[in-house]
Structure formats: structure tokens, C-alpha cells
Amino acid sequence: MSKRVGIEVSLAIGDAVRLANADVIAAYPITPQTHIVEHLAELVANGELDAEYIPVESEHSAMSACLGASAVGARTFTATAGQGLELMHEVLYVASSMRLPVIMAVANRALSAPLSVWGDQSDVMAVRDTGWIQLFVENGQETVDNVLCAFRIGEDPRVLLPVMVHLDGFYLSHVIEAVLFPEQSQVDRFLPPFKHPVPLHPDRPVTMGAFAMPIIYSEAKWAQEVNLEAAKEVIFECWGEFGKLFGRNYSPVEHYRSDDARVLLLTLGGFSETAMTAVDKMRGEGKSVGLVRLRLWRPFPFAEIRQAVKNAEVLIVLDRAISFGGPGGPVCSEVRSALYGEAKKPKVIGFIGGLGGRDITPSGFEEIINRGIEIAQRGSDREFEIFGVRE
Predict the structure, then answer these.
(1) d(C-alpha 154, C-alpha 197), whole Å
(2) Domain count along the chain
(3) To which H or E segment does residue 79 belong?
(4) Residue 391 placed within a domain
(5) Are residues 46 and 61 in the same domain?
(6) CB within 8 A of 226, min separation 6: which ones?
(7) What is the pLDDT tens value at each position of the chain, 391 positions in all?
(8) Which helix (H) or strand (E) is 54 found in, with range?
């Protein structure tokens, strides 16, 4: 029997890692993810999780330790946020290039300067091209479920890639929600032990991350891209099996009242649930509005995005990060790219909001949608709109 518990989402992540029987945790504390690794340290110290916990001097060291642990075949986990993710940045490329399935929860946080501990998505957008599989979650249940799925996906021998699970810092990481935890026996059926096919071992030497001359570097990078794209099939398969076993289903692009909507709003992460309230209100007023939510960020679900918006007249994309000097927001830019050349496509309007932890209320989402409709009808002299900023 599964057990429903009211719990802070950060602590629930630690309990999910315990259910996954992780072997090694290497981590450094940084707001707003600290509660995750504090709870894991407590679980290890109390004997509730049989794992090695490596306290390190920085996030760069945390990811470096995770590389060594994963390379010898240990099930490995870490967590970080904001500037911590940026301090890891160069090592993130090594994890994906060396096919090491490190699993990492990222409590998304705004980047300095000015200094902010609050949440937006500037940290994840800064690491979008590091070669990791990247998933977004909206609530505590989805977080627990997708941490378990992340281990299953990343460790699949057809994949062998690191996975980030992104959750909103503070808005989700520090709230208490009801979470349904599966029994250990259920998780064990879903998540087999990790067996690295070519682990580091002194008796059977292998080479990892060797020096590459220009004549082979391009081929190595292309092989990495082919593998990341091929991981889509395994991700979908994993979510399908999870749904059959636990009754909760996940998709790369998810919908809310969008099938017949002329106007669609696209969001990522926990703000999506607030946007649903706005959609409900506008629907009640007779407005043809719906919501699509992007769960799979990398590899990007091109075909699924095209299918999701093909019948809409207007698509309003909310970014919570700025691509400075560029066309606005990273997500909007990628959505426009995905729709380029399509014979039938909506007008795409980009908004940037929620920066540095600024809230967007249901009425705020209504304002974004209404302004997006106005821009689609009348046009604008700007590439994107800023929401809630005193210009």
C-alpha cells in the first residue's frame, strides 16, 4: 500500500532518493535546495539509507565527486540551485560526455547580480546545452515521481546520461504538500539495480574522457547528440511503465483545457498550476483559452509541441529568464524554432515574467493572456513583452 504524507517537498525528494536506494550522495548546501541534502545526510546518519555521503567544499567538487562515484557503477545523486549550478557548469559537460547517469534535483533560483535567493529559471536556461536530460515538475507528487523516473531513465543502458529534475525554488521546494509514497517493493520492481556496462575497475582498466584530437572530436559530439535524441523513446517508455504501475502518467507536453482553445498559454514548472486558475476563470467567462505545459526540456519535444499547438490561433509563451541581447526568452525562442516552416501555426507572443521570485497571480496570468491577444491582433514594436516590470 502506498502511504500519503504531508511533507515539505525538499524532504520528499530525500525520501524518494532513499526509496531509490542511492549509493552515493555528494553535495554542498545552497539556498533553496539545502533541505534536500540536509535530509539525506540525516537519513544516512540514522542508518535509514545505506549510502556514502560525501561532504565537499563546493558545488564544483560535489559534481566532480559524483563523476567518480557514477563511473565505478554507484547510483549517484546530488542537488543544487542557482549559483551552485553555475559553479558546477564545466563539470556538467563531463558528466554527459562520459555517459555517467548522475541524478540531480535543481531548486531553480535567480542568478546574481543583484543577489537573489528567490526562484526563476535563469539557472536552468544557462545550462540547457550541457547535454543533460532535463525535466520540469509542478508539485510535490510530480517531483517524487520524476526523481524515481530520472534514475530509471538515466541508468537505462540505452541511455546512460545524467538527468536534472527542475523544481521551483521556494515556491515548491519549501512548501508542504500531500505526497503519495510508494512501497519499497513497488519501487524495487520499477527501478532495477544500476549496472554500469563499463565501470572503472582496477582489474579491468577502461579509458574515460581521454584527450581527443580535432579529427575525432566532432564525431564524439555528434554521437552524444544522437544518443540524447534517442533517449526520448526510453523517457516515454519509462513514463508509460510508471503510469501502469503507479497510476500517474506523464508526457513531454501536457495539456489543460487546450483541445478546442483558440488561445494557448505555454508555461514550465510550478507556475503552471496558478495559470490553470486563470484559465478556469477565463473559460467561465466564455473565452477560448487553454494551457500547455512543457515537462521535457531536453531533449526538446519538437513533434509534440507542433501537435499541441497546431489548432491554436495565438500561442503566448511565458519565460522566467531573459536571453540578454537576444529575441527575449529562451523557451519562446525554441518554440518559434520548432514551429518554423509549419504550414499551419499560431502567432507566437513572448512574455518574460516572474524574475527573481516575483509572483504572478491568477489575475496576472489573465493580464498576460489578454495582452498577448491584443498584440496578436494589433502587433507590437518589440520582440517580447516584460510583465510586471516598472519600465
Answers:
(1) 13
(2) 2
(3) strand 76-80
(4) no
(5) yes
(6) none
(7) 688 999 999 999 999 999 999 999 999 999 999 999 999 999 999 999 999 999 999 999 999 999 999 999 999 999 999 999 999 999 999 999 999 999 999 999 999 999 999 999 999 999 999 999 999 999 999 999 999 999 999 999 999 999 999 999 999 999 999 999 999 999 999 999 999 999 999 999 988 888 999 999 999 999 999 999 999 999 999 999 999 999 999 999 999 999 999 999 999 999 999 999 999 999 999 999 999 999 999 999 999 999 999 999 999 999 999 999 988 899 999 999 999 999 999 999 999 999 999 999 999 999 999 999 999 999 887 878 899 877 6
(8) strand 52-55
Within-domain flag for 85: yes
Q: Look up the domain containing 159 and give its range.
A: 3-246
Name residue, grid cell 582498466.
205
Q: Are residues 327 and 379 in the same domain?
A: yes
214 vs 162, 211, 217, 221, 330, CA distance in Å? Answer: 25, 10, 5, 11, 30
Q: Which amino acid is at 141?
A: Q
Picking from 115, 148, 123, the residue whose alpha carbon sits closest to that of residue 59 is 123
Closest by CA to 326, choosing from 311, 314, 336, is 336
Grid cell locating 369: 493572456
Query: Do 83 and 219 share a structural domain?
Result: yes
Task: Look up the CATH number of the domain holding residue 377.
Answer: 3.40.50.920
Determine the residue type at 312.
A
Q: What is the pTM assigned to this prediction?
A: 0.97
Does one domain contain both 41 and 186? yes
Residue 289 grid coordinates: 483559452
How far, in Å, CA of 302 to CA of 283, rounded? 28
- Residue that is last in its domain, among 185, 213, 246: 246
Residues 102 and 189 in one domain: yes
Q: For residue 78, give the C-alpha cell.
A: 546530488
Phi–psi pair at 280, nearest 5 degrees: -60, -45
Query: Can you tell me the distance from the alpha carbon of 320 to that of 204, in angstroms, rounded to the nearest whole number?
Result: 47
Helix axes 34-45, 9-19, angle to 10 degrees: 40
C-alpha cell at 355: 524574475
Which of 214, 246, 278 finishes a domain?
246
